[in-house]
Amino acid sequence: MRIVVPPALTESHVEIDGEAGRAWSAGLPALAERYLDQWGLRLAGGAAMHGYVSLVLPVLRDDGTRAALKLQPVTDENAGEGAALRAWAGQASVRLLDEDRETGTLLLEWLDADRPLSAVPDDTEALEILTGLLARLVTHPAPPGLRRLSDIAEAMLADVPESLPELHRERDRHWLRFCADAVAELVAEPGDRLLHWDLHYDNVLGAEREPWLAIDPKPLAGDPGFELAPALRNRWAEVLATGDVTRAVLRRFDLMTDGLGLDRARAAGWTLARVLQNSLWDVADGEDELDDVQLAIAEAVSRRL
């Protein structure tokens, strides 16, 4: 069975890393063959899957059980993925079966990619499921060597002064300063829990040994309040459909903070840190106005400070 790299994956690697990204993508079939041989795997039926940076191949192990071979370049974001999965040991997360830390290649238990949590029709039910998983994940202390939220927060604060003049609207500059002030109050107490950092509904898949399991962490050590923003942003059309954006965002925020047992003011501050992070990324990409959804989230959760 021939391994074909999806063109969209190649395009994303070219966007990220130019010709080096194209070369990495072109080498994926050979890299996959290396681990098929090394780990005693064979390709299973079914199409390859991919995200923005990784290629995931359905495979069979020697004993006939299904698994997923995940191939990705090592980056700051995913360098700790194997360490996080080992720490969680399959509790609320996909189970790690094997790993090559040098290349970032992972062998993972098989989950049902056709059954993401985003497919659950009721957004409250989906949010309760996600919150339950998150509550279990953040009970674990972060293993040594992971990125630290303190370093990320300090870097964000350092970027604010040069980003402010790039924004044309005073409203945007106000909220960038407001978020930065909230982060400045928290940066000295960043927390030490093992965070997923990207737990949204499409990063939760149906499984056999548990109904739902988290995948694709971008792990770091920090405060669980930093984990809430993706679920506030997801399924935004349903927020808009309520006719009261602030109330709908706060309903989600309150459900999650209650389920995680978090101090709401502190969680609000770390949620504003995510708004700050996303906004700084947008400015770095050339945007001169802040995203309306990020502004709506900031305005809502500021009421919980």
Q: Can you put this structure into words, describing what you see?
A:
- The protein has 305 residues and is an alpha+beta fold.
- It folds into two domains: 7-110, 2-Layer Sandwich (Phosphorylase Kinase, domain 1); 116-304, Aminoglycoside 3'-phosphotransferase, Chain: A, domain 2.
- Helix content is 47%, strand content 15%.
- It has eleven helices and twelve strands.
- It has helices at residues 7-26, 28-38, 81-88, 123-137, 149-163, 170-186, 229-233, 236-241, 245-260, 264-284, 292-301, and strands at 42-43, 49-50, 55-60, 66-71, 96-100, 105-109, 112-116, 147-148, 193-195, 204-206, 212-214, 220-222.
- The strands form three sheets. Strands 1, 2, 3, 4, 5 and 6 form a six-stranded antiparallel sheet that branches. Strands 7-10-11 form a three-stranded antiparallel sheet, with helices on one face.
- Helix 5 (149-163) packs across helix 10.
- It starts with 6 loop residues before the first helix and ends with a helix.
Draw up the topology in text.
Blueprint: H1 7-26, H2 28-38, E1 42-43, E2 49-50, E3 55-60, E4 66-71, H3 81-88, E5 96-100, E6 105-109, E7 112-116, H4 123-137, E8 147-148, H5 149-163, H6 170-186, E9 193-195, E10 204-206, E11 212-214, E12 220-222, H7 229-233, H8 236-241, H9 245-260, H10 264-284, H11 292-301
Parallel strand pairs: 8-12
Antiparallel strand pairs: 1-3, 2-3, 3-4, 4-6, 5-6, 7-10, 9-12, 10-11
Helix pairs in contact: 4-9, 5-6, 5-10, 6-10, 9-11, 10-11
